[in-house]
């Protein structure tokens, strides 16, 4: 492909939990923005989730839930190729091929694998690989394949995934150094939010909102459930009359992100002056989130219903994706001498 050809943006979303507000702000919105300037290919990395999700009903649920979330958030399936990783057999064939070109030492240094070993070390276990499956160890190779098989130019990811995109470039380089005169894989570039400008949303306990902390606000919780989660947001116990530091609770930080600017300004002033309780701010936040997300929630629920168009949309996306992945795999097979 020449330099004036299509520029592809690709990202994968691992279906390991219910999507939350942090995912929306930190991953979904930025990726949807890129769809204006790139040919975008976004997929549900369901086989990546298998390294941790071992309940079949749950894996199916998260996969549909993540797909429905992206569609409800505005992903246009006509403009974006939107598919499930497991529907693309070429990925798994290329995964074997590229694991034969990937240095084991590179995988030894991968963050997730090193973190698993560190946890074993801290727990005093003799076997530092205890509980590590080959899926976790090979994770970066499969991710490299996701990227290389569609000849992606850019890969929008969170900072924690930067190393994986660098590995993809490295693995492509190893392939190219052997077979480059017959076929060259395209070297991808990561796109990460700039340090400091990345809007990291706090969760209900004030730490970064994350599934692993159990402090998330789900994107599409029904109103009653939303109220309950918001009520749990940690605040200080300063009496209603006393002045309060707005930023001392994530309830205000979240309101700032999702509320009407006039309401936010007034609330800030009233908190600083004293006489406003956190309960009232929580009610404002519930209202703001409800207003912003209720229409999307309706669309999400319609897509989640059995018999909705969700499965057809994903099947159609897989057909479109395979138009890219089949020829790449064929060229690789030809280059390595398998036909
Ligand atoms: P979690 O921390 O809940 O497990 P993931 O690691 O699956 O979330 O993150 C998926 C995407 O959402 C990543 O691109 C990540 O940068 C983004 N993201 C997750 N939590 C937040 C947050 N609190 N604020 C902003 N972006 C976030
Ligand atoms: N590893 C990514 C995560 O944990 C998900 C992912 C899988 C991905 N394949 C990808 C992201 C390819 C970008 C490109 O969030």
From TrEMBL:
Its main location: cytoplasm. The keyword DNA-binding does not apply. A motif ('HIGH' region) lies at residues 15-23. Its EC number is 6.1.1.2. One of its GO terms (cellular component) is cytosol. GO terms for biological process: tryptophanyl-tRNA aminoacylation. ATP binds at residues 14-16, 22-23, 158-160, 201, 208-212. L-tryptophan binds at residue 146. InterPro entries: aa-tRNA-synth_I_CS, aa-tRNA-synth_Ic, Rossmann-like_a/b/a_fold, Trp-tRNA-ligase, Trp-tRNA-ligase_bac-type, Trp-tRNA_synthetase. It holds the Pfam family tRNA-synt_1b. Keywords: Aminoacyl-tRNA synthetase, ATP-binding, Cytoplasm, Ligase, Nucleotide-binding, Protein biosynthesis. A motif ('KMSKS' region) lies at residues 208-212. It catalyses: tRNA(Trp) + L-tryptophan + ATP = L-tryptophyl-tRNA(Trp) + AMP + diphosphate + H(+). The keyword ATP-binding applies. It is found in: Cytoplasm. It comes from the Bacteria. GO terms for molecular function: ATP binding; tryptophan-tRNA ligase activity. Homodimer. Belongs to the class-I aminoacyl-tRNA synthetase family. Catalyzes the attachment of tryptophan to tRNA(Trp). This is Tryptophan--tRNA ligase. It comes from Micromonospora phaseoli. The lineage of its organism: Bacteria, Bacillati, Actinomycetota, Actinomycetes, Micromonosporales. The gene is trpS.
């Amino acid at each position: 492909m020449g330099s004036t050809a299509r520029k592809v943006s690709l990202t994968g979303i691992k279906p390991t939990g219910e999507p939350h507000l942090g995912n929306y702000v930190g991953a979904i919105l930025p990726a949807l923005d890129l769809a204006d300037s790139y040919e975008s290919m976004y997929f549900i990395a369901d086989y990546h989730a298998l390294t941790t999700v071992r309940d079949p009903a749950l894996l199916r649920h998260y996969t549909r839930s993540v797909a429905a979330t992206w569609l409800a958030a505005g992903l246009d399936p006509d403009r974006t190729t939107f598919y499930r990783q497991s529907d693309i057999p070429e990925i798994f064939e290329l995964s074997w091929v590229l694991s034969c070109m990937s240095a084991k030492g590179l995988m030894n240094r991968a963050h997730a694998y090193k973190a698993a070993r560190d946890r074993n070390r801290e727990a005093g276990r003799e076997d530092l690989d205890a509980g590590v499956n080959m899926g976790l160890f090979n994770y970066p190779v499969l991710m490299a394949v996701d990227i290389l098989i569609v000849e992606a130019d850019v890969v929008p990811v969170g900072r924690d995934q930067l190393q994986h995109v660098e590995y993809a470039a490295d693995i492509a380089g190893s392939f190219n150094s052997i077979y480059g005169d017959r076929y060259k894989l395209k070297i991808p570039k990561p796109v990460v939010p700039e340090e400091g400008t990345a809007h990291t949303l706090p969760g209900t306990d004030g730490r970064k909102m994350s599934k692993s902390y159990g402090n998330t606000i789900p994107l599409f919780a029904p109103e009653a459930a939303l109220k309950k989660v918001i009520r749990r947001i940690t605040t200080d116990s300063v009496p209603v009359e006393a002045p309060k530091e707005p930023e001392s609770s994530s309830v205000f930080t979240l309101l700032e992100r999702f509320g009407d600017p006039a309401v936010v300004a007034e609330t800030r002033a009233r908190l600083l002056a004293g006489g406003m309780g956190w309960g009232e701010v929580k009610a404002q936040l519930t209202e703001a989130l409800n207003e912003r997300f209720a229409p999307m929630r309706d669309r999400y629920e319609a897509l989640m219903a059995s018999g909705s168009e969700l499965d057809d949309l994903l099947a159609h996306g897989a057909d479109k994706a395979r138009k890219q992945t089949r020829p790449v795999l064929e060229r690789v097979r030809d280059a390595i001498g398998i036909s």
